[in-house]
Every structure is written in structure tokens, then in C-alpha cells.
Amino acid sequence: MFQCGHTSITGNAVVWSALQGRVSNRLARHFRAAPHRLPASHMPIVSFTFDDAPDSAAGEGAELLERHGGRGTFYLAGSLIGQSSDHWHGLSDDAIVRLHRAGHEIACHTFSHKSSANLDEAAMAREIERNRSYFRAIDSSIRLENFAYPYGLASVWRKPQLAKAFRSARGILPGVNSGVIDLQFLRASPLIDREIDKAGVDRYFDEAVASGGWLIFYGHDVASAPSPYGCTPDLMRHALEAAGERNMPIVTVAEALRRIGA
Ligand SMILES: [Zn+2]
Asked: Which of 44, 134, 197, 212 is most open to solvent, judged by the fewest CB atoms within 10 Å of its CB?
């Protein structure tokens, strides 16, 4: 199972481990923060991010973004590249090069897509280095500057380690990043048909405008019959048009960090 929202439970040890992970995830929301205050005059911006990532995100997803003058961030795990899972086929090396050259951001999601809750410091360091070298080998100019937690699970123990390795880390805690934000636990809202409708998307955009904040969406595949973790082109188009109607720039996470002075 590769999907970010899915965990399988096979025994007591796993249940206990999952419980520890949940507690660590909750603690990570509040501790070891990398606080950054958005400039008072900050204009709202939006980032579209894709995790894992399916070939449809690199295809239709990237095309839709480009058609609306935007670029996206793709949080990739080297072990999933070109692999089939229950719900989709992973994007190819060629697709990664194309995304990178078109100005999309290639970002880090661990190499083997293990939860940070199950990695000690040495194992996490190996995951990061393996992922960095995987993408460097595809194109030597690819630098992984930003990180997203697999399954959205942060770890209070790994958070300071990741802060040294990356400019930011993104979870799946919904909401707009506004006021004082935590660069090492960026909020992200689902662009996933099972979890949100067009009215829900509009509410996040309105909140971003009201607060001058940074709205981040996360998702996986982009398909007319999406997986439980993905969206339809129709929902994505709606979100892109919602940004256009509000004059909100559609930028990568790396570019958003530059704009907020982080
Ligand atoms: Zn993932």
C-alpha cells in the first residue's frame, strides 16, 4: 500500500506502533516548531502539491496547472517511480525530467515511503540520501529542498532532523497557513473528491483571501475516475479557476517560501 492516507494494521505490535506514531504526530504539531510570521501585507498565494506521484498527476495534473499559468510541487519517493500500485501507475523518470524542466518542483517524500514515525535518525538520514541520489542521477540539477511526511504523519523526534535537511515539511493537517506558520509542519488541505467538494474548495480560497495566507492543496492522481486519494480534472480545474478569480498566484512550495521571505 503506497497511498498517503492508508495504513494497514496486522497485529498488536503494529497497533502499538501506530498509536505511538499518532501521539508523536500530535506532539509534532505543537513542539519543535520553525515559526515564521507572514509579512503583514502578504497577498494570498496557493500551491498545488502531489504526493508519490501517479503518472496522471505528472500528465493531466501538470498540464492543467500550466494552462492556468501555475506550477506544482511533486513530493516523490524514489522507490515508487515507475511502479504500479492498487490505484495507479507511478510516474516515469522521463516524466520527472519533463516536470523539472517545465519549472515544477521535485521534492522529497522519503525513498521507501516509510512513515517518519517508524524511522530512527540513522534510517531517516539513509532515506533522505537515497532519495537525493536517485533524483540527482536522473538530472543532476534536481535538488530536493522541501519534504512531505508520508501518510501525513509527522514525528516529534524526526522534525528537528528534517528541519536541518529541508526548508520546509508539509503534513496533511487542513487549513490555511496564515499569521505565524510552522515551516516544519505546513498545513495542507485535500484536493481529493472523496474529502472535499467545490464549495469546500471555495471556502479555503475565501479564507486565504481574508487572511492573506498561503493555501496548500495535496492530492495524488488526477483522473475522471480517481482513486480514493485523488481528484477529477473537473475539481482541479475548479480550484485553478478559483485562484484565477481571486488573482492568487499559483506557485510551487519553493517559490512560495521565497515570497513569504522564509
Ligand atoms: Zn505518499
From this structure: 197
Residues in Cβ contact with 122 at an 8 Å cutoff, skipping those fewer than 6 apart: none
> What are the φ/ψ torsions at residue 213 (nearest 5 degrees)?
-95, -175
Residues in the chain: 262
User: Which tens digits make up the pLDDT trace of 154-198?
Assistant: 888 899 999 999 999 999 999 999 999 999 999 999 999 999 999
- How far apart are the CA of 130 and the centre of ligand 1, in A? 16
Question: Ligand 1 centroid vs 198 CA: distance in angstroms?
Answer: 24
Question: What's the CATH code of the domain at 189?
Answer: 3.20.20.370
Domain span at residue 105 reads: 2-259
Domain count, the chain: 1
What's the pTM value of the predicted model, to 2 decimals?
A: 0.92
Describe the crossing of helices 198-211 and 233-245 by its angle, rounded to 10 degrees: 30
d(CA 113, ligand 1 centre) in Å? 6
Q: Please report, for residues 72, 106, 164, 235, 253, the alpha-carbon distance to residue 46 in angstroms, rounded to integers and kept in the order given.
A: 10, 17, 25, 15, 9
Residue 104 has pLDDT above 50, yes or no: yes
Q: Give the Å distance between the CA of 221 and the centre of ligand 1.
A: 11
Number of alpha carbons in the 13 Å side-chain half-sphere of residue 19? 6
Q: Measured in angstroms, how far is the CA atom of residue 240 from the centroid of ligand 1?
A: 23
